[in-house]
Specification:
The chain has 6 helices and 12 strands. The protein is of the alpha+beta class.
């Protein structure tokens, strides 16, 4: 039995914020969001409730494309919705400019060269601390210090950026949103139609298989390996490209953590499933073996 063919009951999310949807009941309802393959897709499922303001925006940075969907009560006002959206977009651009490992003048590059210490900038310290925590949580399979060239938080940087943008939305008073990048997302609250966000997670390598459908009011989905690039994740213990899996997807409360777990699972292969068996808030959705 392949890892991704284990019984469905194994993957049932017991948290009330995310629940599986019966496929037969779902057929008459289109999803709001689709994840899988090499990107994401937005579906206009049920329109917008009459007393809601809905906004959607896509922004591309030097490393990724992000889609933001948010809605708010009519009394909140379109101007306030627009300001919240601009603030979140600005945060995504700022993370790209300030922390991108490929930028010679970024804080991460300066840290690599020993020009600054992590504690010099609180957000940088948070990023380094998260990488250290995930190295411990994954038995060293996620190791931002084992990357050629020195410290590289790329395995969780995208998720960290999304969560920071989401925090900007919440600070502005927006509590119903989805932020997506590639095959990753974080959601909170409800979609514009008034119900939970309906997310169809497609199999990363077999387009013929029906998607796993989730209804989410809070949570994240992180994926590693669906871009089609081989060798982009390195086994931190050997320095060689990871080759056991072609894709790994993890769900849980925080996208930065889910991203890091997915990267580590991709590198570790089946052995990494042990991380999700002891009451963890995170669980593996796909861990597809390379044939």
């Amino acid at each position: 039995m392949r890892i991704d063919e284990q019984p469905r009951s194994r993957w049932t999310d017991e948290q009330p914020r995310t629940r599986w949807v019966d496929q037969t009941a779902f057929r008459s309802r289109r999803p709001d969001l689709r994840l899988g393959s090499r990107s994401h897709r937005l579906d206009r499922a049920g329109g917008t409730a009459g007393d809601r303001i809905s906004a959607q925006h896509t922004v591309r940075t030097s490393t990724a494309e992000y889609s933001l969907l948010l809605n708010a009560p009519e009394w909140f006002g379109r101007r306030a919705v627009g300001e919240a959206l601009r603030d979140a977009v600005a945060e995504l651009r700022a993370v790209d400019l300030t922390y991108g490992p490929a930028r010679p003048d970024s804080l991460v590059s300066r840290l690599r060269r020993g020009e600054i210490a992590p504690e010099s900038y609180p957000p940088l310290a948070d990023l380094v601390d998260r990488c250290a925590a995930m190295r411990a949580a994954t038995d060293g399979w996620f190791d931002a210090w084992a990357v050629p060239g020195g410290f590289d938080p790329g395995g969780l940087l995208g998720g960290w950026a999304v969560e920071r943008a989401a925090a900007r939305l919440r600070a502005a008073g927006i509590h119903d949103y989805a932020v997506l990048t590639g095959a990753d997302l974080t959601v909170r609250g409800h979609a514009a139609h008034g119900g939970p966000w309906r997310v169809a997670v497609h199999h990363p390598t077999d387009a013929r298989r029906p998607p796993m459908v989730l209804e989410m009011t809070a949570g994240a989905v992180g994926t590693s390996g669906v871009t089609g690039r081989q060798g982009h994740v390195v086994d931190p213990h050997t320095g060689e490209p990871a080759e056991q899996l072609v894709a790994a997807t993890v769900i849980g409360p925080d996208l930065a953590v889910a991203d890091a777990y997915a990267t580590a699972l991709y590198a570790a292969g089946p052995a990494g499933l042990a991380w999700f068996r002891s009451g963890s808030d995170y669980r593996a959705l796909f861990a597809h073996r390379r044939r």
